[in-house]
Backbone:
């Protein structure tokens, strides 16, 4: 039986989308106590854990405990869903090829934080989100699926973020399903899907 451990830091709307899509989430781990996603998990009877990064002297010490907790559930996939920690190469290596992240930009544009603000400042007309395998370099692993949305006149960070978030929920669930169905193929850093499902979504609605 396949299973997914979801790592979060906040609200948990992507977690909710995975649950709603029927993804077998067996545990939710947060590095922030009181993260909204913990309550979502609890409502669905999913075990939750908090491993606070601030309790540890180094990134490695934090990740050692985090990985021990993740491994207790022996997940098929580790899904970062709004997990706001930069992870070390050692941690990434442990879950190589079975760790996904959702990022709120059309990678490789706008890696890192404040993506919507930076997209507006750059004046781009198309923005979006990406689901990618996690590799040691931040937000740079092989891209599984992307969704594009328009940047509209009068957009604020909040409006744009909401438009992108709707698509995050669509593409993250789709990517995780593909992974669990063993349909993702990575070759030379590019991901294809057995059966040729659409790896690109464009939603023009405001
Ligand atoms: C999402 O936009 C995700 O892409 C980003 O942080 C946000 C988390 O939202 N890294 P949620 O906690 O899933 O609602």
Residues:
């Amino acid at each position: 039986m396949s299973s997914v451990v979801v790592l979060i830091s906040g609200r948990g709307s992507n977690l909710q989308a995975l649950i709603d899509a029927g993804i077998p989430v067996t545990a939710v781990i947060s590095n922030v106590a009181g993260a909204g996603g913990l309550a979502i998990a609890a409502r669905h009877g999913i075990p939750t854990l908090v491993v606070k990064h601030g309790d540890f002297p180094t990134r490695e010490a934090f990740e050692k405990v985090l990985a021990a907790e993740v491994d207790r559930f022996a997940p098929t996939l580790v899904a970062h869903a709004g997990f706001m920690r930069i992870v070390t190469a050692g941690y990434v290596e442990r879950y190589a090829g079975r760790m996904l992240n959702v990022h709120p930009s059309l990678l490789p544009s706008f890696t890192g934080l404040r993506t919507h603000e930076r997209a507006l400042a750059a004046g781009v007309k198309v923005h979006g989100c990406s689901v990618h395998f996690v590799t040691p370099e931040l937000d740079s692993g092989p891209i599984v699926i992307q969704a594009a949305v328009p940047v509209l006149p009068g957009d604020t960070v909040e409006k744009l973020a909401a438009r992108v978030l709707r698509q995050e929920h669509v593409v993250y669930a789709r990517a995780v399903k593909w992974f669990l169905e063993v349909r993702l193929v990575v070759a030379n850093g590019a991901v294809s899907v057995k059966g040729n499902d659409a790896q690109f979504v464009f939603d023009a609605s405001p």
